[in-house]
Amino acid sequence: MLVLKKRAIYCLLISFLFLISGCYDSEDIDRRMIVSPIGIDFRPNDKLLATFRMHLISPSDEGASKKTEGKNYIIRSSLAPGLFQALNNIQVQDDHTVFIGQCRAIIFGEGLAKTGLKSSLDFFSRMPTFPPSASITIGRPTAEAIQNINWPETEMHDQNIRWFFSNRPNQKYGVKKWSLFRDVYDPLQDPLIPIVTPWDNNQTMNMVGLAVFNEDRMVGELDLTEATLLELVSNPEKENRIFIPLNQNNQAFFQSITGRRKIKVYYLDDRPFFKISLRLKAFLGELTGSKSPMTEKELGMIRKRTESYLEKSLVKILIKLQSMKSDPLGFGNYFRAKQSKHFSIQKWPIDYQQAEFEVDVKVFIERLGV
């Protein structure tokens, strides 16, 4: 009994020591600067210009107010050989603690993207608290220019970027940190990252296309029309809006077009052959030069011309990606899964350059909005 009492007293003393120690390394949240997006640009002599747009928890603080002129954020930049050194340089510029654990956006400058992203990605892979769902964009002309957009001061900068890629027209183009790492380090699939520029008198940004990558290096781009059409293959279940030219004077606008995809893989004449079948349901929102009511014959003509346009355009886009040695749709993974006896990881880059594509599209116009 006496032994039990001694043990109980001993446990209580140990617990008391934990309680009185307190949070010895605690830091007032008002003394933190929350990094919103991180912008990274390439500069001569293999240096990186890192731009940190930081949200102040307490912008009313006297020291902060002098630096921000009443704004709830500050922008700090550092030119350094690497991101770790840049972060340290930023830290010594201010008495607030720089905190990146809630950063939700990474902006890579176009120049950096063309030289390669792996050195920058290494920094984020070593930061275990960095959110995997952070949005990824390519800034044109630079990431610094995107950082200096005059977003509403009541909002955090990264919230605006995430909102930009979560609203209806742009949500299908959004790229997250985890998916970028997956595609960069997958030898059989390459990334596509949205390109954005300042817009509306530097009040917001505008997406102008998709950056095409070979592993971690930007090798070209798709314009918005090509990006939208490619989404019909990569994510047909997501809602798309597209304009289809019917002839020189008329075009059809499909307010909503979704469907399903099937990819068959063959090995013919010592080369891969991919047959892509798309079955799409479309809502025709507008038809220029049309007369009302529309006859079944006219509707059939629209359907056939739409199918023909999509088939030719998609094959052209796939050949364009092939010429840039980029495989964002992961055809290599399809070929390995379906034709494993003909697949070789060393030989795949050559096989991909020789691959042929066929696209078969069937469009079903269910509702008319014209």
Description:
This protein has 370 residues and is an alpha/beta fold. The chain has helices at residues 2-21, 62-68, 83-92, 110-115, 118-125, 143-147, 157-164, 177-184, 224-234, 296-323, 331-338, 348-354, and strands spanning 32-43, 47-56, 73-80, 97-99, 105-109, 135-139, 192-199, 204-214, 217-223, 240-245, 251-268, 271-287, 356-368. Helix 9 (224-234) packs across helix 10 (296-323). The longest helix has 28 residues, at 296-323.
How is the secondary structure organized here?
Elements: H1 2-21, E1 32-43, E2 47-56, H2 62-68, E3 73-80, H3 83-92, E4 97-99, E5 105-109, H4 110-115, H5 118-125, E6 135-139, H6 143-147, H7 157-164, H8 177-184, E7 192-199, E8 204-214, E9 217-223, H9 224-234, E10 240-245, E11 251-268, E12 271-287, H10 296-323, H11 331-338, H12 348-354, E13 356-368
Parallel strand pairs: 1-4, 1-5, 5-6, 6-7, 12-13
Antiparallel strand pairs: 1-2, 2-3, 7-8, 8-9, 10-11, 11-12
Helix pairs in contact: 9-10
